[in-house]
Amino acid sequence: MERQNIFFDVDGTLLDSATHEFPQSAKAAIQSLKQAGYRVFIATGRCYASLKRCGLMDAVEWDGYVLSNGQVVMLKDQTLLHEECIDFRAVKQCIDIAAKHQIALSLISSDDWFMMDDGNEYVKIAHQFLNEVLPHQRPYEGEPIITMLAYDSRDADYHEFRKIEGLKVIPAESTYADLIVEGVSKAAGIKRLCAYFEHEDYIAFGDSLNDWEMMEHAALSIAMGQGNEKLKALADFVTRSVNEDGIAYAVNALGLLNENKDNIR
Predict the structure, then answer these.
(1) What is each CA distance from 64 to 142, 180, 187, in whole angstroms?
(2) Which homologous superfamily is 5-83+184-253 in?
(3) How far apart are the C-alpha atoms of 74 and 81, rounded to whole Å?
(4) How would you write the pLDDT of the chain (265 residues) with one tens digit per residue?
(5) Could you say which of 112, 121, 158, 252 has the lowest number of CB atoms within 10 Å?
(6) One GO CC term of this entry (predicted)?
(7) Secondary structure (3-state) at 67
(8) Cβ-proximal residues to 128 (8 Å cutoff; 6+ apart), any chain
(9) Domain 88-181 belongs in CATH node 3.10.290.10
């Protein structure tokens, strides 16, 4: 059997969201998958700079990256395969809504991550969850924006942002939501990488709602045990939590390293 592509979410899947550590068991399992002939990829809501800072890019020899929830796609050497930015009018609308409703907003371009004010307590909570530095403060100067983060309470529905044409709102498992281009998802980025490698089928590991589309279209979808309940109901297999060696457990339980094992539905 030809080995498939495997895509891993980062926060809550590869990284324990409480300790921000990459379990040694997960690293060993992924290295074994590589040795067995699988191609392994990261599919994350994080931008390139954030992923680089968390240390995962150097932990494994990845075959490519889906970043910013599918708006940026890179090959293993960081060659850019695709980049898509939010419409300028939608960016301006988000800025206006954030100011009107006193919602903190950060903006991510190809080379910067910034805020136009000093934020609020939800920003600090979200960046502690991500183990990420706080964005620096500066004005928006009209440059292309790949993605934005709106910061509010965990139960916020971001309804004003949802009204913006061409914008997609993805609440996270913390005090923020990703604001991206409507119609873009991790699944769309994955499709581009699968086409590049001329292998359509893939396996996906995830834990939160921004993994929904990539799980929905996967040949085999695996949800982490501590993950979002709706996502776990969608998944083909629910493994143990990230801090209970969930990736390694799934690899073994599903026989992904077994010879002649057909893992495609």
Answers:
(1) 30, 21, 14
(2) HAD superfamily/HAD-like (3.40.50.1000)
(3) 5
(4) 456 899 999 999 999 988 999 999 999 999 999 999 999 999 999 999 999 999 999 999 999 999 999 999 999 999 999 999 999 999 999 999 999 999 999 999 999 999 999 899 999 999 999 999 999 999 999 999 999 999 999 999 999 999 999 999 999 989 999 999 999 999 999 999 999 999 999 999 999 999 999 999 999 999 999 999 999 999 999 999 999 999 999 999 999 998 655 544 4
(5) 121
(6) cytosol
(7) strand
(8) none
(9) no
- Counted residue by residue, the chain has a size of 265
Residue 145 CA, distance from chain mean position = 17
Residue 38, both tokens: 């699988």
Q: Looking at this protein, which amino acid is placed at residue 212?
A: W
